[in-house]
Structure formats: C-alpha cells, structure tokens
Amino acid sequence: MEPAKLHYWILGWFSMALCCWCTSDTFTQSDSHPHSWKKLYLAHHWPVTVCKMNANDCHDPPQYWTIHGLWPDKGEDCNRTWHFNVTEIKDLMSDMRHYWPDVLHSSLNRTQFWKHEWDKHGTCAATLEVLNSQKKYFGKALELYQHIDLSGCLLKARIKPRSSYYKMPVIKEALTRFYGVTPKIQCLPPEEGEEAQTIGQIEFCFTKELQLINCTALKGESNPMQVHLKLGTQELSICNDTLPTYYPSEVQGHK
Ligand SMILES: *[C@@H]1O[C@H](CO)[C@@H](O)[C@H](O)[C@H]1NC(C)=O
Ligand SMILES: *[C@@H]1O[C@H](CO)[C@@H](O)[C@H](O)[C@H]1NC(C)=O
Ligand SMILES: *[C@@H]1O[C@H](CO)[C@@H](O)[C@H](O)[C@H]1NC(C)=O
Ligand SMILES: *[C@@H]1O[C@H](CO)[C@@H](O)[C@H](O)[C@H]1NC(C)=O
Ligand SMILES: *[C@@H]1O[C@H](CO)[C@@H](O)[C@H](O)[C@H]1NC(C)=O
C-alpha cells in the first residue's frame, strides 16, 4: 500500500474502533443538554507563527505542529464547578509537555494553558462518554493528534518551513489528498507592506463518533462557532487562496 493509502486506512480503522465505544445513550443525553454540539475541532498550531504573534515569552518554539485544543463547535465554560486538576492527567504528562505545550509562556507554569482549555472547551466536550473526564479528554485529544500526524503528513508531501512562499491551494490539496477531508486552515494576514500571509493553524473536524469529516459547513447546518485567536493586534483568519503563503522556520528574520 502507498503510505497515503495506508495512513487513510489506519485512520478509518481507528475511527471505526472509536465509534464502537460510544453508546446511543450518550447522544440522547447530550442532545437534550443545553450546550449540545455536533462537531469537534482538533486545532493544531504552528508554534513559530504563534510566537510571531506575540514573542514576549517565546523561546525556541518547537519545529512541529502542536495541539492548540479540542473544541466542540458550540458552547464554552459548560461546567464552572468542574475544576481542572493536573493530578488527573499525570500519566499523560510527558506527551502533554511535548505535544501540547504552552508555546506563548514557555518559561511559566504550563498547566495554565491546559486549565484554560479544560474550563472553556473540555467541560463542554465532556457530554460525550469518551470524553467525560479530564484524563479521557486530554488523552483522546493526544490520541487523535498522533493518528492525524500532521507534521509527518506535511513532510511526506514535501511541505516544510522555508523562506520562499507556498501557494495555498498546494497545501490544501496535499492535506485533502492525504486525509480525504478538508481541514480549516488559518493564517496571519499580511502585515502592512507585506505581500504574504503566514500559515498558523490547521483544524481537523470530527463527528461525535470521532470520525474525520470535512470542516466545511453542511447544508442546513448553522455556522460553526468562530474560534478566534487574538494576540495583540494580530488575529488568525481563514487563509486566502490567492495570497502567497509563508511557512516560517524562525520567528524573526523574514524580510
Ligand atoms: C459539573 O461538574 C461537577 C463536578 O464534576 C459534577 O458533579 C456535576 O454533575 C456537573 N454538572 C453538570 C451539569 O454536568
Ligand atoms: C485531584 O485529583 C486527584 C486524583 O484523582 C485527587 O486525589 C485529588 O483529590 C484531586 N484534587 C482536588 C483538589 O480535587
Ligand atoms: C503549577 O502550579 C500548580 C498550582 O498552581 C502546581 O500544582 C503545579 O505543581 C505547578 N507545576 C509546575 C510544573 O510548576
Ligand atoms: C469531503 O469533501 C470532498 C469534496 O470537497 C468530498 O469528495 C469528500 O467525499 C468529502 N468527505 C467526507 C468524509 O465528507
Ligand atoms: C484575497 O486576497 C486578494 C488579494 O489581496 C483580495 O483581492 C481578495 O479580496 C482576498 N479574498 C478574500 C476572500 O479575502
């Protein structure tokens, strides 16, 4: 099998296996929940771009895509009494540090970022039985991230950080070919006097059965919640297909 096919096959198998863990019971419950949601976004961000947005406390950002979060398409802060407790995810700590680092505050106590993600998104995702504890929520996000293997996929498609620009459709087509679904790709718009946008975030969409789906909204579906990452004056937005795209390897030095 070609690597791409094999990969897709593994993903398919993985999704099917996950699917069987959810009972229809869960759906009935969550559908009557005030914060019912339909889709999960697994957001990856490119640490160099995140640092570019706010370089105050950023040191040697990783040169691989890291996790930003696992977000239901609806709801925030769904249970304010369910407090983040880092002890509950102590078994996941080495993967958390490696794959889900707080890129912006690399020198501070990094549990703050995880607490933020749990409070805002995890407590909403927890209506699903496979995500209904902190260990399950963070553990499943890590598992999905590792199976997606975005960094590996881009390298196989020979898309890597470089000083010359990419065409956005080239990146998009490589991802769609590899995964069979279209992710949501976000960029920093060109700064004053610049011609290129900078790729910053790639989100994959999953059903409640944790199967990959296109991130494009389906007919009759309300617009998914817009999750904006705003730091300082810069904000990520959907990449423009016609603009040259920069995939930076260093925070500074692109002029
Ligand atoms: C909120 O979380 C607490 C602590 O885990 C739990 O006891 C309670 O049932 C949750 N409330 C809702 C509405 O899910
Ligand atoms: C945090 O989780 C640990 C392990 O589950 C538990 O023993 C501890 O009591 C919890 N701490 C708080 C403040 O809830
Ligand atoms: C981070 O702070 C929490 C309490 O705020 C503490 O329990 C934890 O041990 C600290 N972690 C690190 C790595 O300093
Ligand atoms: C995603 O969209 C593409 C076309 O844009 C389509 O060919 C494909 O079947 C869709 N995949 C899923 C899983 O819906
Ligand atoms: C994309 O960029 C081009 C060139 O700057 C601009 O004309 C166009 O309006 C942009 N498209 C969107 C959807 O923003």
TrEMBL record:
PROSITE patterns in the record: RNASE_T2_1, RNASE_T2_2
The record ties this protein, via SUPFAM superfamilies, to: Ribonuclease Rh-like
- According to its UniProt entry, this protein's organism is Malurus cyaneus samueli
According to its UniProt entry, the protein's GO biological process terms are: RNA catabolic process
Q: Which GO terms describe its cellular component?
A: endoplasmic reticulum lumen; extracellular region; lysosomal lumen
Residues of the signal peptide: 1-22
Pfam families (UniProt xref): Ribonuclease_T2
Please identify the protein, giving its name as recorded.
Answer: Uncharacterized protein
- Spell out the catalytic residues: 68, 117, 121
Question: One MF term in GO for this entry?
Answer: ribonuclease T2 activity
Q: Where in the cell is it found?
A: Endoplasmic reticulum lumen; Lysosome lumen; Secreted
Superkingdom per UniProt = Eukaryota
Catalytic activity, per the record?
A: a guanylyl-uridine-RNA = a 3'-end 2',3'-cyclophospho-GMP-RNA + a 5'-end dephospho-uridine-RNA; an adenylyl-uridine-RNA = a 3'-end 2',3'-cyclophospho-AMP-RNA + a 5'-end dephospho-uridine-RNA
Q: Which family does it belong to?
A: Belongs to the RNase T2 family.
What keywords tag this UniProt record?
A: Disulfide bond, Endonuclease, Endoplasmic reticulum, Glycoprotein, Hydrolase, Lyase, Lysosome, Nuclease, Secreted, Signal
Q: Where would you say this protein principally sits, based on its record?
A: endoplasmic reticulum
